[in-house]
Amino acid sequence: MFVTRLRRADTANPGGFLVFNWSAALKVMAISAIPFLELRFGIPVGIVSGLDPAVAVALGVLGNVLQVPLIIFIMYMLRRIAQLVPWAARILARIDRAAERHEAKVRRYGWLGLALLIGIPIPGTGLWTGAAVANLMRMPLMLTALSMAAGVAIAGVLVGAVTTGAIAVIDLF
């Protein structure tokens, strides 16, 4: 079975600290921190690398959530710099145009809309898009951070479930 081959558990020391697949764990966190790849790719890589699906989801969410303060800071600084520097204003205008496509939904549902925008793992959504929309709407900082974390958790669970389900279907053949 495909899934059984992926789980290389040590029977002499099950769940032991030294047996844990640290390279796969770091790989999941690193991939999950890369914009546009995020946990949509990090979690499947972790599961295929032999990590337990729950561990892969937790590491993917952690790797993605760790960048929330950085993203909020970058968006804040870009808005400040755009007032002074023309090229930054052009970059911000491009980001704002992309964010405007999602703004109406987020305005309608508030923080929950932002969490769902980030949490639905399809192209054009995700943490960076959510940050751009929140920045465009001038949402309060703490509400933005909590909505982003909730959205990442939703996305992590969905990606983990889809990946595990896909592997189970592959096992049937």
UniProtKB/TrEMBL annotation:
Keywords linked to the UniProt accession: Membrane, Transmembrane, Transmembrane helix
Name used for this protein in its record: Small multi-drug export protein
Entries under InterPro entries matching the protein: Sm_multidrug_ex (IPR009577)
Keyword Membrane among record annotations: yes
Entry keyword annotation includes Membrane: yes
Transmembrane residue ranges: 12-34, 54-78, 109-128, 148-170
